[in-house]
Design a protein that fits this description.
Structural class: alpha+beta
Helix content: 25-40%
Oligomer: single chain
Number of helices: 7
Strand content: 15-25%
Number of strands: 6
Shape: globular
């Protein structure tokens, strides 16, 4: 913490909290995101932005070719509903393998990181009591260089985390696991200051895309998920919400 500029730290905390959802039963009747109707939202979904909509100035020739479905880079669609199918712990270990250090002689991992700071911490969570798990505690913290999984203490009761990630009224089903990407602020800001926050978000995207593609290889279902309140997730995990910022939750499930 002594390497952090207090002003940069406070400004980033304030900015991040502006994008935080408040999802809780006690405010469900008084909080809302916007007043837009579902029909209007549907019309805006998936649209492309044309810089010159009144002019046909595209390059001549046939349309660009889409990625072949047999390509390793062709991702499956995000899962709309998890039917309760589970992933084995062996599959989970294979799933996170792209995030590990490439070899013992280097700190480089399977994804890019500005300045090799790696400000995003990865937590793997077992959300189902039927999962075969290596410890009584249900949350594991990835140590990429050591290639080990650190056991998060006092995480044996996973109910608070499930309630934080999947609040009442969600229609996503029952994922068996979740990967939580946490920006660790001291590592995020000390070198690149405000820019570090942007770089950490970019790094999160690189990580969850690798996991997304790995899910296809392992025949697992996945979906990126942001319908949660940051502080509730941190509280359920027992980590400091002024140092750890959830940037994304990736839900994982198998097939029945």
């Amino acid at each position: 913490m002594k390497f952090l500029d207090p002003r940069v730290y406070e400004d980033t905390l304030e900015f991040h909290n502006k994008g935080n959802f408040t999802i809780h039963d006690c405010v469900k009747n008084i909080s809302r995101l916007h007043n837009l109707q579902s029909k209007l939202l549907a019309n805006l979904t998936g649209n492309e932005l044309q810089l010159y909509p009144d002019m046909d100035i595209t390059v001549d020739g046939p349309p660009l070719e889409v990625l072949d479905v047999t390509s390793q880079l062709h991702r499956e669609s995000s899962c709309d509903f998890f039917d309760g199918g589970a992933a084995t712990f062996e599959s989970i270990k294979k799933l996170i393998s792209p995030l590990l250090s490439k070899d013992k002689k280097t700190h480089k991992r399977g994804y890019p990181s500005a300045g090799a700071l790696y400000p995003v911490e990865v937590f793997i969570c077992s959300l189902s009591t039927s999962n075969i798990w290596p410890s009584r505690e249900k949350i594991l913290h990835l140590l990429p260089n050591s290639r080990k999984l650190e056991i998060l203490q006092d995480s044996h009761d996973i109910t608070p985390l499930i309630e934080a990630i999947l609040p009442t009224g969600n229609n996503i089903g029952n994922p068996s696991h979740a990967i939580i990407y946490m920006m660790y602020l001291p590592k995020t800001l000390f070198k690149y200051r405000y820019r570090g926050y942007r770089l950490a978000l970019m790094e999160t995207g690189s990580m969850y895309m690798l996991i997304d593609l790995q899910c296809k290889t392992l025949k697992l279902k996945t979906r990126q998920w942001s319908g949660y309140t940051d502080t509730m997730v941190c509280k359920a995990m027992g980590v400091n919400p002024t140092l750890f910022y959830p940037s994304c939750v990736q839900l994982i499930g198998g097939t029945k």
